Amino acid sequence: MALEDVAQDRGMPTFILAAVPVAIILGFLLVPAAARVVLGILLVLFIPGFAMVYALFNDDEIDEIERIALSVGLSICLVVFDGLLLNYTPAGLSLGQIVISLAAISGVFTAIGFYRRTR
């Protein structure tokens, strides 16, 4: 089943969600500082949780309001645990490591959600 077929069957723009981690990493490298604020807010408060909700629930299990609320809450939890784990790495906390790790977390949950929808 092709990526576009899954997106059309489930009503979820899967290909957009899969491109988000790459876009975020490129965005932090290429955009001016003012636009980084918007990307940073999305990266910290919405995208990791949305990817996790995408992996855990099908589209018909929860409605949009529940999906958004869970996305914000789970994003905050994921960012806290990510920061805690990054703090114990030899390099410590830095902007680049946080962006890459959150993009990787989002990418992994997106891949899990895609796999669940294609089986």
Number of domains: 1
The first-to-last residue Cα distance is 9 Å
Please provide the ordered H/E string of secondary-structure elements: HHHHHH
* Backbone shape: globular
Strand content: under 5%
Tally of alpha and pi helices? 6
Describe the 3D structure.
This protein is mainly alpha-helical and 119 residues long. It has one domain (3-118). The chain is built from six helices and no strands. The chain has helices at residues 3-10, 14-30, 33-45, 47-56, 64-87, 95-118. The chain starts with a helix and ends with a helix.
Concise account of the structure shown:
With 119 residues, this protein is mainly α. Helices cover 81% and strands 0% of the residues.
SSE layout:
Blueprint: H1 3-10, H2 14-30, H3 33-45, H4 47-56, H5 64-87, H6 95-118
Helix pairs in contact: 2-6, 4-5, 4-6, 5-6
Features:
119 residues, single chain, 6 helices
